[in-house]
Write a structure and sequence with these properties.
Length: 94
């Protein structure tokens, strides 16, 4: 999961997020998305994760959790990259 983020290492981790999807979205729904529809914000779907880069901040982007739920018809939750990294470190420590 951590390896799937194509916005690293060039992206600022403070501006990166991951949207976790409850189930895998249909291929047709993913194919219908334009990853740069709200540029400069962009995203990339990898399985049940959506990697999001928001240069203007997540609070200002239109490609937020609700947008992905609507477009992909899948329940989702979004976390910032720092939180994801901390949770991964905790899981490795166990």
């Amino acid at each position: 999961m951590l390896d799937g983020n194509r916005f690293l290492p060039s992206g600022d981790p403070k501006l990166l997020h991951v949207t976790f999807l409850a189930t895998s979205p249909g291929r047709g729904r993913v194919a219908a998305l334009d990853e740069r529809v709200h540029a400069p914000d962009e995203f990339h779907v990898v399985g049940r994760e959506v990697y999001v880069s928001c240069p203007g901040g997540y609070g200002r982007t239109k490609i937020n959790n609700a947008w992905f739920e609507q477009k992909l018809q899948v329940v989702a939750t979004t976390r910032n990259w720092k939180t994801v990294g901390q949770l991964a470190a905790l899981a490795r420590a166990r």
